[in-house]
Amino acid sequence: MAERTALASELFPIITAGDLDAALRFYEGLLGGVVGYRFPETGEAAYVSLGFGAGQLGIGRQADDEPPAGPTTLWVYVADCAAAVARLRGAGVQVLAEPATQPWGERMAIVRDPDGNRVLVADRG
Known about the structure:
Blueprint: E1 14-17, H1 20-30, E2 34-39, E3 47-52, E4 55-61, E5 73-77, H2 81-90, E6 94-101, E7 107-112, E8 118-123
Parallel strand pairs: 1-4, 5-8
Antiparallel strand pairs: 2-3, 3-4, 6-7, 7-8
């Protein structure tokens, strides 16, 4: 079989937020993402990129004339699933599924971000 060269060198998700400030309170303030890029640098942001360890998430502000992008599901690893869900719940985040040990050994819960996206919060058990 011939050697295959990857066309893409990196992939990261970008979600669209109806309220970028609320999305940043969730992804940066609660989940601990670190802003690596913001456009524009001053004034109201249209796009922000956050780092989570080796992973990245882009969040773009939804334009007024743009239809909703639709819900997405994201997976986030945390040190302690139950503690993370308690912190998120305390901040008013909707919890869809409580922490539970999955058949593959990880503990996982499901919450909803401010734009209705499902966020699977898990620890490696």
